[in-house]
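Figure caption, in words: inputs first, then the predicted bound structure.
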Amino acid sequence: MDDDDHRWSDGGVYVVDNRVEAIGPAADLPATADRVIDAAGMIILPGLVNTHHHFYQTLTRNVPGTQDAVLFQWLVTLYPLWVRLTPGPARGQAPRAMSPARQAPEDFGPS
Ligand SMILES: [Zn+2]
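Bound structure (zinc ion present):
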């Protein structure tokens, strides 16, 4: 789908140097590419950019009783832990918190 809400059941995306150069009917796109991903029957979504990250919450994501909790219960359970958090542990787990954001886009796509 483009900005004008056009949808193509036979559409494609043409990317050059990790930038979308063209979208539209596959017949209108370049016929060759370094890599071709057959996404027939799939929906193509743009990449998402995480504009903020709660680093400190990485430390508490496995606290029992919070994985399936609704938001308020999750906050009530974890807030007492977060208010006692000191800079050292928060800083120390920063690489773990950032690890999903450092993965290359091709790690997520079909191959
Ligand atoms: Zn947030």
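The first helix runs from residue 71 to 82.
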